[in-house]
Amino acid sequence: MPPSAPSFWRRNGLSIVLLTFLLAALVGQIATGRSVYNAERLEHHLPALALSQYLTSGHFVSATFENWESEFLQMGLYVLLTVSLRQKGSAESRPLEPRSERIEPGPAPWPVKAGGLWRGLYERSLSIAFGLLFAASFALHLCGSWRAHNAEQAMKGEPPVGLAAFVGDAQFWFESFQNWQSEFLAVAALVILTIWLRQKDSPQSKPVEAPHSQTGA
User: Fold this and answer.
1) Handedness of CA 74, 76, 79, 84 (dihedral sign)
2) Containing domain of residue 44, as a range?
3) What pLDDT does residue 201 have?
4) Cβ atoms of residues 42 and 52 within 8 Å
5) Where does the chain cross the membrane (predicted)?
6) pLDDT score of 47
7) How far apart are CA 91 and CA 66, in angstroms?
8) What distance lies between CA 173 and its chain's CA centroid?
9) Does the structure show a pLDDT above 70 at 113?
10) pTM tops 0.85
11) Gyration radius of the chain over CA positions
C-alpha cells in the first residue's frame, strides 16, 4: 500500500504559523496604537478615532510600513548579496567552491520551459519581488509619515507641510535608518553566529557534527 500524501498542515505548517503570528501581532499593534493615538488626540481636545478611521490614519500607515520597508530591504539585499559573496564557515553562505546543486525530479516551472525573456525574468523574480515590495512599503511609509506629521501640525495649530518638503525631513529618515540598521545587524548576526553555533534539525544551521570551517548546509 503506497504511503499517504502529507496532510495540508504537514505541507504548509511553517507558513501557517508565521502568518498566524503576523496577524496576532498586527491586531495587537492596531489595538495599542489606536489607544495611544486617541489618548494623544484627547489631550488636544480632539475626538477619538473609530477603528476604521485609525486604519487609514497616518499614524497606523506610517508605523506599519516603516517596519515592512526595512524587512523587504533586508531580505532583498540578502538575496542579491548571497549570489556572489561568501562567508567561510557560515550556514547562510553558499559553498566557497562551486558544486552541482541537486534538483528534485518533477516538472520545471513554466517560465523555465518557455525560455527567453520569461526565463530571464524568472531567474531574477525573487529579487525583483523584494525590490517592488520595498518600493511600495517605502512609498506608503513616506505618505503615512507625512500625513501623521501634518495631523500633529494641525493639533498644534501650525500649517501643514508639503510632501516634497517632508521628504527632506530628518524625522522621516530617522525612522527609516533606525529600522534599516537593526535589520542589517540581524542578518549579519545570523551569518556570523552560524559559523560556530548550531540548532539541531534547523535548515538555518549546519549539521551539529559539521566543523566550523564548513560553509553552507
Assistant:
1) negative
2) 10-55
3) 87
4) no
5) 126-145, 180-197
6) 95
7) 29
8) 18
9) yes
10) yes
11) 23
pLDDT, position 104: 75
Residue with cell 515592512: 68
**Co-location of 22 and 51 in the same domain:** yes
Three cell numbers, residue 53: 478611521
Best CA proximity match to 27, nearest among 62, 64, 56, 53? 64
Q: Which three cell numbers stand for residue 77?
A: 539585499
81 in the same domain as 39:
no
| 140 and 206 inside one domain | yes
Number of domains into which the chain is organized:
2
In a domain, 5, yes or no: no
142 and 68 in contact (C-beta within 8 Å)?
Answer: no
Please provide the DSSP assignment of 107-174 as one string. PPPHHHHH-HHHHHHHHTHHHHHHHHHHHHHHHHHHHHHHHHHHHHHHHTT-----HHHHHT-HHHHH
- Segment 136-188, tens digit of pLDDT: 999 999 999 999 999 999 998 999 999 999 999 998 999 999 999 999 999 99
Claim to verify: residue 92 and residue 181 sit in the same structural domain: yes
